[in-house]
TrEMBL record:
<feature type="compositionally biased region" description="Basic residues">
    <location>
        <begin position="220"/>
        <end position="229"/>
    </location>
</feature>
<feature type="domain" description="Cobalamin adenosyltransferase-like">
    <location>
        <begin position="34"/>
        <end position="208"/>
    </location>
</feature>
<dbReference type="GO" id="GO:0008817">
    <property type="term" value="F:corrinoid adenosyltransferase activity"/>
</dbReference>
<protein>
    <recommendedName>
        <fullName>Corrinoid adenosyltransferase MMAB</fullName>
    </recommendedName>
</protein>
<dbReference type="Pfam" id="PF01923">
    <property type="entry name" value="Cob_adeno_trans"/>
</dbReference>
<dbReference type="InterPro" id="IPR029499">
    <property type="entry name" value="PduO-typ"/>
</dbReference>
<keyword id="KW-0808">Transferase</keyword>
<comment type="function">
    <text>Converts cob(I)alamin to adenosylcobalamin (adenosylcob(III)alamin), a coenzyme for methylmalonyl-CoA mutase, therefore participates in the final step of the vitamin B12 conversion. Generates adenosylcobalamin (AdoCbl) and directly delivers the cofactor to MUT in a transfer that is stimulated by ATP-binding to MMAB and gated by MMAA.</text>
</comment>
<dbReference type="InterPro" id="IPR016030">
    <property type="entry name" value="CblAdoTrfase-like"/>
</dbReference>
<dbReference type="GO" id="GO:0009235">
    <property type="term" value="P:cobalamin metabolic process"/>
</dbReference>
<feature type="region of interest" description="Disordered">
    <location>
        <begin position="220"/>
        <end position="240"/>
    </location>
</feature>
<feature type="compositionally biased region" description="Polar residues">
    <location>
        <begin position="230"/>
        <end position="240"/>
    </location>
</feature>
<dbReference type="GO" id="GO:0005524">
    <property type="term" value="F:ATP binding"/>
</dbReference>
<dbReference type="InterPro" id="IPR036451">
    <property type="entry name" value="CblAdoTrfase-like_sf"/>
</dbReference>
<keyword id="KW-0067">ATP-binding</keyword>
<comment type="subunit">
    <text>Homotrimer.</text>
</comment>
<keyword id="KW-0547">Nucleotide-binding</keyword>
Length: 240
């Protein structure tokens, strides 16, 4: 979505269908199309204007981050349907989706090549406040939850299961971002936030299950099927 907005603004500038004013007012003299055709040859642009193949590691990270926001959006809708006791979480999830847009801007602005003004404009969580918010929310929910005594399986109702899906997508997004952070191509704070976000979503899944009055499924080692004695001999005799 971050890249869609960038393409949208570029279209407005190119077609002359806009006039930006100060504050929040945007005047449109026409309605630009959502498609630009600039990516038809398999490349896309970063915020710096540099074009790269769409299978570049940066776009892989951006796309996975977009998947994360979508999965959180779906989980949030299930939380809205469940309703009971989840109002605080619902607001938090929407705030997180907005922050993921900011993370997309950070990823799309390579820290090793962008200009200083662009770096400053797309810096993410430089003071660690967003991570601190996640930790506060985790601790608040955890006070109401029973202690973990077994490995739990994604379960506990639709909202809880959807939150566990979002958790796993958060882990995947982190795996895409970590190599970029190690190469100083994105802010390290992005990787830290995604790491803590998966912990938050795990706790949210448990919390949603508790509020729904649903039991969480726990891991149980599957038992190997028992083989009756002399069963192979009996089978051989029957075949003869």
């Amino acid at each position: 979505m971050t890249m869609y907005l960038g393409a949208f603004r570029a279209t407005l500038r190119r077609t002359g269908n806009c006039a930006f004013s100060t504050g929040t007012r945007v005047l449109l003299a026409g309605r630009p199309k959502i498609y630009t055709k600039t990516g038809d040859k398999g490349t896309s642009a970063l915020f710096t204007g540099e074009r790269r193949p769409k299978d570049d590691v940066v776009f892989d990270a951006l796309g996975t981050n977009d998947e994360l926001s979508s999965s959180i959006g779906l989980a949030r809708e299930f939380c809205l349907d469940q309703g009971e006791g989840l109002n605080g979480m619902i607001g938090q999830l929407e705030q997180i989706q907005c922050l993921l847009q900011d993370i997309g801007s950070n990823i799309a602005t390579p820290r090793d090549s962008a200009t200083a003004p662009r770096l400053a404009r797309t810096e993410f969580d430089s003071d660690g406040q967003h991570v601190q918010d996640l930790e506060t929310w985790i601790d608040t929910m955890d006070q109401e939850l029973p202690p973990l005594t077994s490995f739990i399986l994604p379960s506990g109702g639709k909202a809880a299961a959807a939150l566990h899906i979002a958790r796993s997508v958060s882990r995947r997004t982190e795996r895409r971002v970590v190599p970029l952070a190690q190469e100083q191509r994105v802010d390290k704070s992005v990787a830290v936030y995604l790491n803590r976000l998966s912990d938050y979503l795990f706790t949210c899944g448990r919390y949603a299950a508790m509020k729904a009055g649903r039991q969480e499924a726990v891991y149980k080692k599957p038992r190997a099927p028992r083989v009756k004695k002399n069963s192979s001999i009996a089978t051989a005799s029957e075949e003869e």
